[in-house]
Amino acid sequence: MTHTPTPVSAAPWLDVLQPELYTPIRVKWAGDRCAVCDSDLDYETDQLVSCDACGITVHQTCYGIPEAPGMDDLWLCRACELKEPGRPEPQCCMCPVAGGALKPTTLPGLWCHAVCMQWIPEVICLDTTRWDFSLFSLLSHFP
Ligand SMILES: [Zn+2]
Ligand SMILES: [Zn+2]
Ligand SMILES: [Zn+2]
């Protein structure tokens, strides 16, 4: 019996652009605690903010929201803000978990969880205020 090893792609994070290679894991996100640090503490200077479209809840500093939205203001996470009809749901290119506190990256069409960005040292954040445009220095390891 021969064992055929699963082929390893040269750039696994690009697999998210090919849904047939990839099975996203669906989890239930709690609306009452931060999707990044999992704390439900709401601080005066670092408030919990919920997306009015998908319901994801994050701290201002965990997701990079310089100004807390007012009580009556609409706030959308970046995934909902940049959503376009007909486009597939954004998927983190670092893990298989669907949804969550996602951020766009410097690579068009690729998204990353704010929490994945914190835990994976090769993923760097270039703009620490808004936390967008993380640069994948990982890419430089591959020709
Ligand atoms: Zn948090
Ligand atoms: Zn949202
Ligand atoms: Zn992720």
From TrEMBL:
Protein name: PHD-type domain-containing protein
Lineage, uppermost ranks: Eukaryota, Viridiplantae, Chlorophyta, core chlorophytes, Chlorophyceae
Any one GO MF annotation of this record: zinc ion binding
GO biological process, one term: regulation of transcription by RNA polymerase II
Pfam family, one: PHD_2
Domain of life: Eukaryota
Species assigned in the record: Gonium pectorale
Swiss-Prot/TrEMBL keywords: Metal-binding, Zinc, Zinc-finger
Record-linked InterPro entries: EPHD, Histone_Mod_Regulator, Zinc_finger_PHD-type_CS, Znf_FYVE_PHD, Znf_PHD, Znf_PHD-finger, Znf_RING/FYVE/PHD
Domain named PHD-type: residues: 31-83, 89-143
